[in-house]
Amino acid sequence: MRFFSSLSVSLLAVLSVSSALTSDHHKESLTVYELNSQSHSSSEAPVLNQKDSLLYLADKFDVSDHFKLGNSQDKEELIKFIDSQHQGLETNLKPNLFILIRGIKNDLFSDDLTPTYQISGSIKDSYHLLFKKFPKILKKFHHKNDLIELTNEIKLISPKSDSNRSLVNHFKYFNDQLVQIWQSFTRGSGSDNEILISKRNSQLKLINDKMFINELSQLIHLNEADVNSQDILFIELNSLISIAKKIGSESSTFKFSGKILKDYLQILSKKFNISILVPSISNEDSSALSKKLNKRSNELNKLFQTHKKRQTSDQVYFASEESCQTSTNSCEGHGECIQVGDDNSKWLCSCSSTFNKSTQKTTVWTGYNCGKKDISAQANLLLWSSLALLLILVGGVQLLISMGNEPLPGVLEAATIPKKNL
Asked: pTM value?
């Protein structure tokens, strides 16, 4: 066991020493589900205090040499728990993913998942420990990492030696791709997406919460990325709080959104070692959290407004060729990104026509991403042809009327028997 290979200066001075394990339930706690390590067979998940949860994670990520156990009377029980959770992890080469999901009840997961453990104490303090302090510890001691913010919701711990930084590049233009990713998902593009949304497409279209669309799109985008087995990600998901505030936590849309989120995390578990953290209550710091959510909501409103304007515009300028190609999916394969003038920071899609050999028809493409069929030629032809036919019809009717009003020739008029007035 690697936990006690060396005991050095403790980084836990800020935490009080308490018992390693306790069976008491606290009013505030975080329930942790490790999707890839469902080895705990007891119906009651063990309860760790905040210090011991950090010791457990330190051992899991091989930075335990920088911690010490202290004088815990139940240290043997803690060691036993750690051993039971780490069986088989040495052969697991998946990257790790920590996800904090606010706004849901534990029964969303507890119906078919067993909690690995609970973290007692203030949720605010546990959040600070696991999502603020622990990433900095990993950055300092775990393979000389960098701490990188991929989006407002995702932080990445990645080795400095990873010069490729595939995840960083993958999320570089996520904001430009957001709507495109969501639309592709709701259409069922991709084998995983098709299985997930089978028979749910109509319900998905009812979800219009921008925060939920943004967060689920990030998970979808993450699933499509090439990852390094040493990568560690921390993700905060708050969209279910946003939905609950708008339409209530008992609404069918809220429950459906939670189910979709849960199912997609199961898909991600094929690629990542996932730890889901669920707070027992959602108001650990309601004022600060509300302020944070309002700020993010305003940012997303502006982002979606930008996307909406693009849909009605034929020309949208991008800051670089790479941004243009990524944001338009290489002009949807119907054109290419070109530089405008001498300004290297202005790029747009130049659309071209395509010829279909089977139908022997040429299609002209338009739109900011060359994704719309240009039917202006056909429309003009239909318009002027219809107008010409209308003029011919009107002229023909007028001709018939004028011919009917002309007097008969003399011969025919003489042969006509005049009516007698009685």
From this structure: 0.76
**Do residues 234 and 140 share a domain?**
yes
**pLDDT for position 24:** 41
Tell whether 129 and 64 lie within a shared domain.
yes
Q: CA-to-CA distance for 222 and 211, rounded, in angstroms?
A: 17
Assess whether 30 and 161 both reside in one domain: yes
Q: According to the 3-state scheme, what is the secondary structure of the chain?
A: CCCCCCCCCCCCCCCCCCCCEECCCCCCEEEEEECCCCCCCCCCCCEECHHHHHHHHHHHCCCHHHCCCCCCCCHHHHHHHHHHHCCCHHHCCCCEEEEEECCCCCHHHHCCCCCCEEEECCHHHHHHHHHHHHHHHHHHHCCCEEEEECCCCEEEEEECCCCCCHHHHHCCCHHHHHHHHHHHHHCCCCHHHHHHCCCCHHHHCCCCCHHHHHHHHHHHHHHCCCCCCCCEEEEEECHHHHHHHHHCCCCHHHHHHHHHHHHHHHHHCCCCEEEEEEECCCCCCHHHHHHHHHHHHHHHHHHHHHHHHHHCCCCCCECCHHHHHHHCCCHHHCEEEEECCCCCCCEEEEECCEEECCCCEEECEECCCCCEECCHHHHHHHHHHHHHHHHHHHHHHHHHHHHHHCCCCHHHHHCCCCCCCC
pLDDT for residue 21: 39
Residue 189: band (very low, low, confident or very high) from pLDDT cuts 50, 70, 90: low
- Is 31 within a domain? yes
Domain limits for position 326: 316-373
